[in-house]
Amino acid sequence: MNALPPPSRRVLADLGGTYPALRPTTGIAASSVQRALAELSSLLNAQATTFMVRDKVEAAFLRHRRFVRSDRLAAVKARDDALAARIDDTAVRLLLAPATDLIDLAIKVGVLIALSEAGPSDSTAFPGAHLRALFADLHQLKDLER
User: Most exposed residue of 21, 37, 90, 113, measured as fewest CB within 10 angstroms of its CB?
Assistant: First the structure.
């Protein structure tokens, strides 16, 4: 594992709402960066689901310790850890893949934004604000609409 900060699913979704280039796509014409973005988005969605399951299992465990098997909690935690490792590996692969066009470059900057902004207030601090300015510049250089 490369130990990147976890990317923010919310930030990626917000950026994808504003900039269609950051919406996940797959298919024959998709670049390796675009396919990695689709995989990263899928993994982040799976992780969100796993977090909800983990919260429920932990709450049940705290309420009824003797009725909830601790191995179920351990299994959920193991799945969380495995997903986190896959997310990290996918983000690294995406960032290190060669960009074939401005869309790929914009995707990479968008993922860097999602990695740098752990919370909403981070978008105005370094490096979030500066990466967002770079992202907007990239968007204006070429029509990144699909």
Answer: 90
